[in-house]
Fold this sequence. Notes:
7 helices
Amino acid sequence: xxxxxxxxxxxxxxxxxxxxxxxxxxxxIGGLYFSWTDIEEIRGEHLTKNPGGLRLxxxxxxxxxxxxxxxxxxxxxxVRGVSLSEVLGVPYYRIDFENSEGxxxxxxxxxxxxxLRDGFSEQEAMEIAGQAMKQPAKVRSAKLLTKxxxxxxxEYRDKPLPAYEISFSQPANTVVxxxxxPGRVESVRTNAWRVFDFFWLxxxxxxxxxxxxxxxxxxxxxxxxxxxxFSGYLLFFITSPWLRAGRGKRNAKLDR
Length: 256
């Protein structure tokens, strides 16, 4: 009974160790990458400028004017906030509101007239992305992304759509995502972020959204990891020469 138990314990530990060891290796390498890489570099913040303050060169209307147009054109449940910003040299009211579907939507209104802005063109989005970069960069390609273009593995996730994908050849294959209607740089993706995303996927084992740490795959690997660990401790005790020597001495005393 004891020999068979030892045999199956060793066999289970060996194969579990190989299987779980791959995941443990990915967790360890990922942890090293996370701890040794600057989070600002991963987010691409070292490549972009900090948004400057608003430079008003003329008079603007009060926020009641764009809000009047907003209620005329949209099904508004509540207004979440109104702020002033500048896009391509033009002052805009940025209005965040909740619609009847419970979604938070952002629209722009020209602060000089109060008229709502319909959305930015591809050329304007390229200018917005170019102005956001610290160093001049040449645009490689640009395209409009809609919900149909975005899947669980796309690097532009959980951000406003439609959005323009503005790709630069350098540095580090940078892609700047500019939302069409708010006209805002939503995220910057580089090679450093893509490496981070790869290891984060295998860190959480959420192969769709990356952030669900309650998924069953992660739970299963956690349980198997504990089984592997405890089987290793069990093997240590049942094969320990000191414990075997102690058992031999006790058996010898009993035989006297």
